[in-house]
Amino acid sequence: MDVIARAWSKAVRTALPGPWRFGLVVREVVGALLLAGLAAPIEVLSGTGLALPTAVGSGLLFLVRRGLPATALVLTAVASGFGGGTLPLLVCVGWSAGARIRRVGVLAGSFAAGWALMTLFGVLKDAGQVPAKLIVGFSLGGYLLLAVLPALWGRYRAQRRALTDALRERNEQLVREHAMIAHQARLRERHRIAQDMHDSLGHQLALISVHTGALEVDRTLTDRQREAVGVLRLAAVAAMRELREVVGVLHDESTALPPGPGPGPAAVGGVGAGAGAGGVGTGGVDGIEGLVESSRAAGTPVSLLRDGERRPLAASAGHAAYRVVQEALTNAHKHAPGAPITVALRYEPDALVVEVVNPAAPEPVGVRAGGAAPAVVSGGQGLTGLRERARLVGGMVHAGPTAGAGFRLAAVLPYRGADGAAAQGVDAGSAAGPETGAAYPEADAWPGGVPGAAAAPPKRRSPAIGCAVGGVAVLAAVLGLLVWGVAGFVRAAEESTVKRSVYDSTELGTPEAEVRKQLPRGSDFFLRNLEGTGPTPPEGADCVRYLSDDNGGTAWGEDAVVRFCFKDGVLVEKQHYRVKQ
User: Fold this and answer.
1) Looking at residue 435, what is its pLDDT?
2) Can you give the pTM of this predicted structure?
């Protein structure tokens, strides 16, 4: 019993798919009652005696057309072959089949099977009364007009709705992806701000600390002046510590940033992009001399060496060289104050080598008698940022201690490939968010497309094209069948009509063969209702009846009929009379 119950439940869910909302229930019930109400009187007028079964079947087939569109179509076509009560239902199931059957093969097979069965049962029902070719022609025309044409329109509407839904989902996806891109741009901008704050402001604060340390041990200053300088130095150290904390927060918040183009020339041209101690600098290789001069002004011996023939660099590579020297000087001021620094720029055949070397720090500078040297503030982000900058231009950075307990920072920045890196940097920089006020990039501006974006769906042809072609073909076929049917109807009428002149010229006693040569072939469609009409024929005579073209004096609803009766091979009687249709 459980198996039967589960099978029944599955069959009901298949035939009547949900969800059954109140509006849908009302619509389906009203539609079923309306079609049942149309089917009953049509069957009564047809005289088939199947009004009640046709009405009930129409209502049920309308209800199951959503879950079983192919089955409903074939059964409706079969019922239409017996009578005309299901013709209104044929329009509904044709629409539903076209909209709900997705596979073209199943759809075409269902319609072909429906028409074949409809024609077969129509021929069986009217066999001997209506010519078979006439039944085939009219059934094909009616089927195309009542079933196929609504199916094409329903399929067009369904495909249009599906395309609209797909475009709406695609638009929502693009909006979500744009929000993700904006979020990534904000994270990149935070990373850029953190890097520039670390590189530029950290360097300036380090120089302030070095200057104040030198002033603090100046013997020409009074104790009060020395104390004020010490407060200034401690304030600079505290500012550096707070700066490192802020940089750390910004960097930590941007660690979720997915791999992508990092800050480039446009991105790094913000805070302190080229500022030296005096606030003047280019941010490229030309600005390195300004960094050296500002460090010398702070009392630190710095030497700048150049080797090789100078070659042009892309903006991103030149800025990376500037940042390498700036970071190296800042670290030297912090960790080895007072130690001499050597900055070397070597133009190799394929790359620029930037090297900054300082020995171990001499006797601590800036420590007051009885005091302790201030703790060195380090955020641990400088070398990481330098390596990222060098990677973006196709280079590398090496940092480590030297044999004399000093420190060496070197970078290799190639000439070739710098333009591509610069392009990446421009793209990344143009993605700045609300912090810079720059516009977000369009999807086509990203190298390789939008990061994380799904591939664009293939272009689809408009569903209107195929459905329009099919609709035109159906209308053309219906028009052709209509013309063929009218022509056949006219020809059959002519073959069933005897001219008045032929009737008058035929004499009694004329051999039957000669008379039949003058008579038309006749058509059962027009002559079958004339059997047994007219006066009583002669006993033993064989009579044939035709319509007459002499309709003078006939009333509405009457036909003029001629009758020829033959016996023993000759014409024995001819009659001209009228019968009601």
Assistant:
1) 35
2) 0.47
